[in-house]
Design brief:
With about 575 residues, this protein is an alpha/beta fold. The protein has 22 helices and 14 strands. A hairpin with a 3-residue loop joins strand 3 and strand 4. The structure holds one RNA strand of 75 nucleotides.
Length: about 575
RNA sequence: CCCCUUGUAGUUCAAAGGAUAGAACGAGGGACUUCUAAUCCCUAAAUCGAGGUUCGAUUCCUCGCAAGGGGACCA
């Protein structure tokens, strides 16, 4: 990439001038009229080299000129010593050709070449509803997975579900109290209504657990049973409920365009978790306290947490240790990401510290990404209290709005259905991914979901528009050309398209899909501006061929960029 | 009480220690006989407070203030 070349050459120049390990940035000035790239090296090292930054800038420029970087047309000094670099028109025209030839591979880079990356995300629990918090984690995880793939890594997707543990016991307690409804669901229920029913039973069981001492004891007993030998009724309810949940999740993953390579369950990690903790109890990594086995996190300025409870059952902590091991056995990763809401940040700090004591090499490769929480205007969502928005019902509500907007479009029913879903998910994905990870989203149906302005549909529409131009060109037989018309003023669009791979690199380094969103918004805005000024497909216009090339390249970058976000381009909208 | 995170236009979000702090929604004004107006163009509008580091701070440090999350047998 050109960016790297410029950085490398400038670094060498500064080194020759006596700077050790120069650190400066090569960036695009926010104001495009200032240049295509900007260097702040002279600003930073002026004082250290005992020179006026402006003089140093002159020297750096003259050295850069000697190095003959063919893409550069001119260099300016601006401000207090910025070096602003302008690129040649030919470079932009050539990059259009490169984009179109690379097609769906444009934007693929090599920063993670040869690396194996494991990424765990979504993690819904059977017996609970798949709500929009899971959706949020899924959007972020899936987008990161795709960005890592574009950076050259081999990526495997992991999903981890809690099919044992107290929450399951609570749900089963609730189901046992409502056997007649369970039977009804088994005989007449639909997949979605069954999932809903399970969620209600969980909320009921949780309420009882907190309020009713007798129920609480029964739930604790059910929990022990779940881990060990299950009696007939428990076993029957457990298997049925678990399967209903998994069927529902499978359908949702299909809607979400996510395919997991590995699915693990807590029932698989529980036994090994206990073994690991007990093994390292002997080595004083864990200690007994009040009949439970804990990890004394306070030593490391972290929380002390229970790994095996006083009933001799593993908590999530112990199971997570085993999970790290099992993941590595099934896929020997170089890097392992775990994507969850940031409410468990402190929890993961403890688990990773404990893992470090057991498997330092695995702990070192593992990174927890805690994204912001999806909150309702009324406050935190909780499946315990039942104050959640189920993913499917939200999707349905949005689809209804879009259907109304599209009522005048003449499309086949199937085409329309697909378009509606693509747009609904596009709007949702955008709402989640538009902010840097780590920040909470207050999810207000009317405010968070936008179909105009900065929004998913805006990006989809822009791409859609470009593609209709391409269709139109095909109809009249207009071919594209990569030679710039003489005296044709430079478009911002030309100056943005080639940057896509740089943005992919940044998004990967920062684990931040938001970087792709910002870039695509800027790109789409400039395309729409171009589109409104210029008639693109026009057989009487000699510049039409180049404008067509520009449009093709724009569409390609949009297609690839939206793919990284998981946003599909509807065939009609 | 302790730990972590976050405070930017009326609102929802950007900003890689840099140049005149960008967008969008909302407000006001304008543009469809045209390749899709889910669009485009114009106007008004913001860095929680006080110090410090730096040539330069929305960004880093300290102290306040405010909001959220976490703090032993849930995750």
């Amino acid at each position: 990439m050109l960016e790297k070349k410029i950085k490398l050459e400038t670094t060498e120049i500064l080194k020759k001038m006596g700077v050790r390990g120069p650190k400066f940035i090569v960036e695009h000035p926010t104001d495009m009229s200032l240049g295509d790239y900007s260097l702040n090296g002279a600003l930073i090292y002026g004082k250290k080299l005992n020179k006026n930054p402006l003089d140093l800038a002159v020297e750096i420029i003259s050295e850069l000129k000697k190095r003959n970087i063919p893409e550069i047309s001119k260099m300016d000094i601006a401000g207090f010593g910025f070096i602003n670099i302008f690129l040649k028109d030919d470079f932009f025209a050539n990059s259009l050709e490169k984009i179109i030839k690379s097609s769906r591979n444009f934007g693929k880079i090599k920063s993670n070449q040869g690396k194996k990356i494991a990424i765990e995300y979504t993690d819904p629990n059977p017996f609970k509803e798949f709500h929009i918090g899971h959706m949020m984690t899924n959007f972020i995880g899936e987008s990161l997975a795709r960005i890592f793939e574009f950076s050259g890594a081999e990526v495997k997707r992991f999903c981890y579900s809690g099919d044992v543990g107290l929450h399951v016991a609570k749900a089963i307690y609730g189901l046992k109290q409502n056997l007649h409804l369970l039977l009804w669901q088994k005989l007449f229920g639909q997949q979605t209504s069954r999932a809903r029913f399970l969620g209600d039973c969980y909320a009921y069981g949780d309420k009882k657990y907190r309020e009713d001492e007798k129920a609480r004891q029964q739930i604790v007993e059910i929990n022990k049973e779940i881990y060990g030998q299950k009696k007939f009724l428990t076993k029957f309810i457990y298997n049925l409920g678990r399967q209903w949940s998994l069927d529902e999740f499978a359908e949702i993953y299909d809607i979400l365009d996510t395919k997991f390579d590995f699915s693990f369950f807590e029932s698989q990690t529980a036994i090994r978790g206990v073994e690991l903790v007990k093994e390292y109890l002997a080595k004083d990594i864990f200690v007994f306290s009040d009949q439970a086995i804990i990890f004394p996190g306070e030593k490391y300025n972290l929380h002390t947490r229970v790994f095996i409870n006083s009933h001799n059952l593993p908590t999530y902590e112990a199971k997570d240790l085993a999970l790290a091991e099992i993941k590595y056995e099934s896929y020997p990763y170089d890097l392992s990401f775990i994507v969850t809401g940031n409410e468990v940040n402190d929890y993961f700090a403890v688990v990773l510290k404990a893992l470090e004591e057991i498997y330092p090499n695995l702990a070192q490769r593992t990174k927890h990404i805690g994204h912001g929480m999806l909150k309702l205007p009324s406050g935190k969502m909780s499946s315990r209290t039942g104050s959640v928005i189920a993913f499917k019902s939200l999707l349905k509500d949005i689809e209804k709005i879009i259907e109304e907007k599209m009522s005048e479009r003449l499309l086949s029913k199937k085409e329309k259905q697909q378009a509606i879903q693509d747009i609904a998910l596009g709007a949702l994905r955008f709402a989640v991914l538009k902010q840097s990870p780590g920040k909470d989203i207050i999810f207000d149906f009317n405010k968070s979901l936008s179909f105009e302005g900065d929004s998913g549909p805006y990006l989809q529409y822009s791409a859609r528009r470009a593609e209709s131009c391409l269709d139109e060109a095909k109809k009249i037989g207009l071919e594209c050309s990569f030679s710039r018309p003489d005296n044709w003023p430079l478009e911002n669009l030309e100056r943005l398209l080639y940057r896509f791979p740089e943005e992919v690199a940044r998004a990967g380094e920062n684990s931040s899909p938001q970087i792709i969103i910002s870039y695509l918004l800027n790109l789409a805005g400039n395309f729409n501006n171009f589109y409104s000024r210029e008639k693109i497909v026009d057989k009487d216009d000699p510049t039409a061929s180049y404008k067509l090339a520009l449009t093709m390249a724009f569409f390609q970058v949009m297609e690839n960029g939206l793919y990284l976000l998981g946003i599909r381009i509807p065939s009609k909208m």
